[in-house]
Amino acid sequence: MTRTDPNDVPRPDAQLHFGVFFQGVNYWTIWSDPASGSQISPESYRRVAQTAERGLFDAFFLGEGLRLREVGGRVHELDVAGRPDAITQLAALAAVTDRIGLVSTTNTTYNEPADLARRLAGLDLLSDGRAGWNVVTTDNAWTGRTSAAAATSTTPTATGAPRRS
User: Fold this and answer.
1) Would the pLDDT of 108 be above 90?
2) Three-state SS at 97
3) What is the pTM of this model?
């Protein structure tokens, strides 16, 4: 067995960074115990973001909801009742947090580039430079059905898969 000389091993000056992704609305995050609290109330977002900040997490992620989910063949009522827009919710969290990064997981397939850039720039301004963007694309049919852009777009997805609408 060959031994590695410890002087030959690169020792980057790296740190481990943690982020929390708050689901917001999903059937598996809604608990039947009333003590668990609402998954869509502004208070829940504030509580989780401030807890993550106190725990020295680097980022708080929110994903956008581009489609209405179905549960048992019926539209999931919490989607209709008010899952907040991710960038709007993060802008509100900028007022009640000081250091944690505020990251929106936002889809490039169904957002207009100029509008998305404007919204992210607004978040960056309101958060004093703490905005982040987790870039995603999608080619799934259920999201495409809720977007007018899907019906007219011919741009391939990042994976090269054809769009389904």
Assistant:
1) no
2) coil
3) 0.72
